[in-house]
Design brief:
It is a single chain. This protein is mostly helical and about 150 residues long. It folds into 2 domains: about 100 residues, Alpha-helical ferredoxin (Fumarate Reductase Iron-sulfur Protein, Chain B, domain 2); about 45 residues, no CATH class. It contains 10 helices and no strands. The mean pLDDT is about 90. It holds the Pfam family Fer4_8. Keywords: Iron, Iron-sulfur, Metal-binding. One of its GO terms (cellular component) is plasma membrane.
């Protein structure tokens, strides 16, 4: 486990998260771990721990949180919201944290690659002739390239 110096902590980080839409509830967490117990991601990735992420934010471990690829694993199932006695709304807090990470340029390369594909093709999966022929046989219209439309959105 890496040691963190108190000089590396940013006490204002929790307020920065709390000011983001969705981040308002972060300071209500009293670390009961109900969110972690309800999280399906914890079952397949033992390093993922919603309570620990919130603790790190509250302690001001800004760089450790924003540069941690684990923050991108939340499946947005809202199971944590159902069980949280403090109504922290962890999923919404994660959106706030991810927004800050994106503003800081701390986005995993895989997600940036998906953005590039989405911008180029208008979808993450490129639909080709084979798929359009199958659609035609089912009486469905062909899917056209939509990159121009999505480029305006992105």
């Amino acid at each position: 486990m890496k040691r963190t110096s108190i000089n590396d902590l940013d006490a204002s980080f929790k307020w920065r998260v709390a000011r983001q839409p969705g981040g308002e509830g972060i300071t209500r967490c009293f670390s009961c771990k109900a969110c972690t117990a309800a999280c399906p991601i914890c079952l397949i990735e033992p390093r993922y721990d919603p309570r620990k992420i919130i603790r790190m934010v509250l302690l001001g471990m800004e760089q450790e949180v924003l540069k941690n690829d684990l923050i991108w694993l939340c499946s947005t199932c809202y199971g944590c919201r159902e069980v949280c006695p403090q109504d922290v709304r962890f999923t919404d807090v994660m959106f706030a944290i991810k927004n800050i990470a994106a503003q800081e340029g701390c986005v995993p390369a895989g997600l940036m690659g998906q953005k590039t594909i989405l911008k180029k093709h208008g979808r993450l999966y490129e639909v080709g002739d084979f798929e359009n022929e199958k659609r035609e046989k089912m009486g469905l219209p062909a899917i056209r390239e939509m990159a121009d439309d999505y480029d305006k959105l992105l």
